[in-house]
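Hi P.,

Sorry for the delay on this. The queue was packed all week, but I finally got your sequence through. Input first:
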Amino acid sequence: MKRKMIVMFDSLKKFAVSLLAMTAILLTAAEWRVESPRPGVLELANDNNSWGGLNPFDVLPCNGSACIAAKVFPLKKLPAGSLEKADKVYLKLHIGVFDYSTVINKEAPNGLTEKFRIRFDGGKEIVLNTSDPRLPARSATSNRLNDWVEIPIDKSLLLNREKISVTITKVDDGDDFIYPSVDRSVGNTASSVSRDGGKTWSRDWNRAQHQHSGEFMMRLKLSSVGEQGTAEWTAGDGIVGDSEKLFAYAADEGECFRLELRKHWDKSQPLVLEFSADPDTIFSAVDEKGNSVDFIRSGNKLSFKTGLPFAVECRNGRVQSVKASFTPAREWPIDRPDMTPEISAPAGKRSSIVPTCRINGPAAILENEAIRAEFQLAPALALKSLFCAEVNKNILKAADETRIFRIHADGRTYDARDGKVTSVKPLSNGFQAVVLLEEPKLECTVSVIAERDELRFKLDVVNCGNSIADFALAFPHLDGITLSTKPENDFYLFPFGGGIIGGENCHFRSAYGQNDAWWQMVDLFSRTSGGGVYLRSDDPEASYKFLNLRKGKGVKHPDLYRLCTGTTPGFFESEHHWPHALSEGDYAGMAIDYAERPYAPGVKVTLPDGVIGTHAGSWKTAMKRYADWAAGVWSRAPFPGKLTGQWNYRAGRGLGSPLWKDGKYDTSYQGKHHKRPADIWELCSWWTLSKSLYWKLPFEEIGRFAKDPWVEKVLVWRDPATGEKVLSYALGDYDGYNPQWGGLPAFRQHIRDLKNAGQVALLYYDAVLMDASAKNAKMVPEFAVINHQYKCAPAHDVANPTAPPGIVAKYHQYAMCVNAEKFADYTINDVVRVVKETGADGVRLDEFGGGGHLCYSTMHKHIFSNEGWGNPVLQAVGCILRGIREKLGQSGKEVLLLTEFPGHDMLVSALDGALCYDGISRRSFARPAQINLLRFYFRNCKLFEIVEDAGDHKPAPWDLWLWNAVGVYNSGEYPDHIRALLLDNNDAFDYGELEPLVDTVCGGVYANRFTSGRKRIWTLFNAAGHTVNQPLLKPEHDGDVHYVELTTGRELALRDGMLSCLMRPQSAIAIGEYPRYISMKDGKLQVKNMPAGAKLIATDADGRRSAELTPGEKLPVLPGIDRIKLLDADGILLDIRHRDSL
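Then the structure:
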């Protein structure tokens, strides 16, 4: 049995073996702290609540009594008297259980049948079954990974003690493993392991791998929360007597009474809601996802024993009151971060000081209008203070934590303080200091220059040793920062997807060059001091790097700890990551790190410049300045362009069915009259179709592709012109244009028809994939990707080639190296040819923008070396895109260039548009409302969000899209009434001035503003976690204007200068401010100062049915048509009124 267990765990070990080098680092000691997850509860902890997942380095596999996990709790850290006052005490464990009988005997697993013991000093113990329902388990009936579990313990075990030791071990040796979790983000000061039944102990928890880091995730929880909680709502008085804050929202909404609950009750115990309502009242309950929740009804009393009700609605009766009875939760859900803190006026202001540098012996002082920095120059280099004008203080609370640069080599970390300054040279408004590290033998030349209002940092590193040195770098490195008197008033902007904005303790790291970080800047700002400081990488080459931000110690939610420690196999070698360029610390830190690489003796590496700047106000000033910098170093695609004002983007036409029908190209999809109208169409399979399956297999062998049913169900069909079976998605030859359908002339005419129908015509093009049957497959293997780390998805591993070794295949086709110089040139010329030949508006280059596979082929020359700091694929993609635009520009041909992912700012600058998965794939507790700052600061690139499983069968989740006012790709189009309001107001949404995250007057509701010369529109998103029906906006307005909620067309009245509206959680609305043109007088329509060329119409909500109206005449009765609109000569909305408001 043990041998089987070892074999099974070894397979798990292989999953993460590359993490060893990555985590062999020195961490600061794990400090104990007392947290309060809710009133009446204290928690003693020294972990960061950061678990790396189920791999050999983040769990301790325990089976049998020999392996014991132990932790010592210092009880004296608890507040005096808190233990005596506690009603209950719990041991909180992060743990998981695995039933390996599902592996040993798949047909008849024996289930979770064993026990483990928790033992305390003095011999007291608790024995638990591995089948205990509280434990997250992976078994035949469950698939839950490790999570927190609370085990009640006797308080007397802890009284009158300074510390207590807790051990965990299996009782029996069988096929049930327990996996106590380890938090490796902290040093190890309290945890230990025995592997011989307690005879000897070691802090080296990871089986002789010499990683003396990481704490077992065990905590002590003290609770003084009562056994019974109540909450009550009464008509007229509202919510009363709710000390547990269970009721989030309760209101009679007219059509129904609605009650919404917070998760403040113990879900393992019943929840009872007793209503005072009519006996015929109809009750219903749903969870947060809208799924029905069962309850037992007795009269008007509802008992919930299973499920988690979020909302209860009462219809067909008036509710006078509701009372809840429940067991209070010992832990409340964590409050979501505040993305729009109120910002005070700046505490200070800039001076008129011109940039200067004064060197006085062992010190240098650099000054400009915004910054005063004092450096120590001997015996070691250090930044001693950093005064920022707008916050009017030295922001280095703990200056010793700023290291300027850090170098990680051979498991050790070195910094500027570890070396000796061998020379100092004055520079114009700066200095240059040479720092020599004896071990490893590196010469580091640091230059710091004062510019008008920024400090520029430069670093060169030379290997002075006699052998190759492998090391990672962090530069610049700033730490020990606090901007506010109280740390909780420090906030940040971090580049992950569309952006993370908040003030909670965090530790973030994102990869720039892998569609992870979209820009190269981190910002810290203070809501009380009214200003901030940013760190920017001044890197026009857009080289691969990692952006780092840490605030404080310990995080409240796992999503606030994200170090980007792993990437897709073959994209980047995880063992070269250095995720802890920022160590743990009490304050805030920012750094940019570059992955480990080998450097030969005498080789000099020059890092991109780092720039520190300050600003008044919030992050917006820093982001605007960064966007201006980016616009200065990368020329941007034209704006506005053909994609401006286009919202629904449909694609895949020709993929699952032919473009040819009844002897001609099918034009039935063209035009905007359809159920799911498209503003943009992307055509597939316009190239010549393949007469064989992938890898040149005959269609008779289609059964081999059973693991990928998409092939048979979608991609294989009969050509209507020939009757033969064809494969529609065989890529590589973008020519031929299906001669059986009339070839290029017929296809050119089809493109003209599509454009004449008022739609943008795009072609699908994938430069990465090459079908084995393509004529261009002759470029394989010379220009194919060679990467031995790549792992093909099992569904796509059908007859994949194995020669030459390491050749990469995906989606049943070869992967080509876009970083190959000659293949990149070929791609540029081929796309140019296709655009010129077809007359299409442009192309979307699939797979571009998402990173790509590192190529180690020696058969071709690379544009960008793999010996740099990371994956150069996005740099190569940028070269291809700019090459296409330049070549077509020389011939006077405009082209639309789109990619599957935005990639990053350098790439975005060259694009007209990109698909975007931000809304669906980057959901996070750290992002209460998923703002997409690319949309607001890089407007030349129109973003189209994608949800792959939406369509006719499933409504699209359009609320976040509307809130950001982005386009929508393919399956999840905007509903007609939302698309109509966007088109009506294109002057504001896509051509106007945009500002993200403007002020609201309702916590948890976020607003973006879109302004044209004639109107203002706010899109609002409710991230409060519950329904709100209260004032939302306080618009400052001039003139005779009125307000309309555009998703319903309803008028909103200003009350006390504010606008109110009901919003469900996770929903969006749009509020428009319009000049008051339309009115009614004596039953007749009036239009004040009607502009020339304007027309008055009545439409339905979807904008599909309309009737022209005449000012001065009566409003006719038009069933279902309730919106009265005044449109200008270009179809842009000037005013709108709901007929009920006239």
